[in-house]
Design brief:
Elements lengths: L1 E7 L15 H16 L2 H4 L5 E2 L2 E8 L8 E10 L3 E10 L7 E11 L4 E3 L3 H4 L3
Antiparallel strand pairs: 1-4, 2-6, 3-6, 4-5, 5-6, 6-7
Length: 128
């Protein structure tokens, strides 16, 4: 499933040079990932009290700087198998003809009572 999330860079997300601090890219990825799950109806279907989705891996490749007040589009591509959800991200802006950053995160489903990995719910597998 491919999803697009739009937002504007806030002042507090930048450093002293007015450039987005590198750690904020992971926040952008998380915002886009949550909005994808919300748009799909998943957040209304499953209680996060019973199942959670911890992060196993994250990666960011920075290509071009982002600046205060840039409008960005975070494009998310979700794939999954029985146990893992993998999200690939591209951050785009009108400032550049090419993506400003690429990244990925990998998550598993975890039973909150036993704290052990479980199979992904069918509703998540069906999103891909």
């Amino acid at each position: 499933m491919i999803f697009s999330y739009l937002r504007r860079i806030k002042f507090y997300e930048t450093d002293a040079m007015g450039i987005v601090h590198h750690a904020n890219y992971l926040h952008f990825f998380e915002d886009a990932r949550v909005e994808l799950l919300r748009a799909s109806g998943f957040l209304q279907q499953k209680s996060l009290d019973q199942i959670n989705y911890p992060l196993l891996e994250s990666q960011v490749s920075y290509k071009k700087p982002l600046y205060f007040d840039d409008e960005i589009e975070v494009v998310v591509d979700l794939t999954s198998d029985l146990l893992r959800m993998s999200f690939r991200y591209e951050i785009r802006t009108k400032r550049y003809p090419v993506p400003a950053a690429f990244g990925s995160t990998v998550h598993i489903a975890m039973d909150m009572e036993t704290r052990k990995p479980i199979r992904l719910p069918d509703v998540l597998k069906n999103l891909t």
